[in-house]
Design brief:
This protein is mainly beta. It has 3 helices and 23 strands. Strands 1, 4, 5, 7, 8, 9, 10 and 11 form an 8-stranded mixed sheet that branches.
Length: 337
């Protein structure tokens, strides 16, 4: 799952010479940033990913001419180390991005190149020169400590609150981690954060709900679950043949989620064997509630229950036998939320 966070635009009067954008991370997450800008040929170039630890500032992107009116386009996401899903910072302008380091120019058909669409914010004027990433807790100068706490917790250590305040529990957890990983007794904080991220990735890479496409074509997948006592369905994750996606990034204890899938393209086909009805839309969607789908402008489908989790993980492999092939059907515009 992905959750929208906050982007704070800090006013900074630019110096006369051209300069790159300054991106500061005041969140408790390691983030990866992508930037877009207009080229001399008036195409849009997009590059990523610039990695920024909690509490760090980095320069990224092209040199910006203070006399130009061209905007800077910005998107950022948390890395995959964290439980609870990827967090995003961005806006409403869809541009193509790659899963790993990438650089594209003048590309509008993301699917043709195996790229994803993400919503970029449009930064104009002085906002182009300094961008500060924040979250509701607004850690400010305590972001590095908060980021260390979050990584300790997601690596399995006893951290009960992410508050950015250095306390005994955090100190004990750091000591235990340093000893377990045979690190120097007092590693520099950037090195400690990197080691914690690697440990969290090892622990959480296979946790949650993993769904794989074992058909010969592309499929689109939607997820239904109860969140804070409200039933919710969302989609779509796009999976090419042989591809997998993590629909839930938490250690699961119960089979308390449901899934639905459709084969896209000319072949078509809907998942069969579902038992619980949820609402959905042909394009990217989040639908709260399970009643009166048609009256609220949604379609409806029967979602399957996920398998019982084993050691925190529930894994699904869909084959052609899982799909019912009707004579005619509409297919969703497959996008990963």
């Amino acid at each position: 799952m992905m959750f929208r966070a906050f982007l704070f635009l800090s006013l900074l009067i630019p110096a006369m010479p051209a300069q790159a954008a300054d991106i500061c991370n005041e969140t408790s997450f390691i983030v990866e940033a992508a930037l877009g800008w207009a080229t001399p040929e008036r195409d849009i170039a997009v590059e990523g990913w610039t990695r920024i630890r909690p509490g760090e500032c980095v320069e990224a992107g092209p040199d910006i001419d203070p006399d130009s009116d061209d905007p800077l386009l910005f998107y950022a996401r948390s890395t995959a180390a964290y439980l609870g899903g990827v967090r995003e910072w961005g806006g409403q302008l869809d541009l193509c991005v790659g899963a790993s380091d990438f650089a594209v120019e003048g590309v509008s058909d993301c699917d043709a190149l195996g790229l994803d669409r993400r919503g970029f914010d449009i930064l104009r004027g002085e906002h182009r020169f300094r961008t500060v990433l924040i979250e509701p807790a607004d850690f400010g100068d305590d972001a590095q400590e908060a980021g260390t706490q979050r990584l300790l917790r997601d690596a399995g250590y006893d951290i009960r609150s992410i508050d950015g305040l250095e306390g005994r529990r955090t100190t004990r957890a750091i000591s235990a981690f340093v000893q377990a990983e045979a690190l120097p007794r007092t590693p520099p904080r950037p090195e400690l954060i990197d080691a914690l991220e690697a440990a969290a990735l090892r622990r959480n890479a296979e946790a949650g709900l993993i769904l794989c496409n074992e058909t010969e074509g592309r499929i689109a997948v939607a997820l239904g679950r109860e969140r804070e006592e409200i039933w919710e369905a969302r989609g779509w994750w796009r999976l090419d043949a042989g591809g997998c996606a993590r629909l839930i990034a938490d250690h699961l204890t119960e089979a308390n989620a449901f899934y639905y899938a459709e084969r896209t393209g000319e072949s078509g086909g809907q998942l069969q064997g579902g038992t619980e009805t949820f609402c959905f839309s042909p394009s990217r969607f989040v639908a709260e509630g399970r009643d009166d789908c048609a009256g609220r402008g949604y379609s409806s489908a029967a979602f399957r229950q996920i398998p019982e989790p084993v050691e925190g993980t529930s894994r699904i492999e869909l084959t052609i036998a899982d799909f019912r092939i009707p004579a005619q059907q509409a297919t969703p515009e497959a996008e990963q939320p």
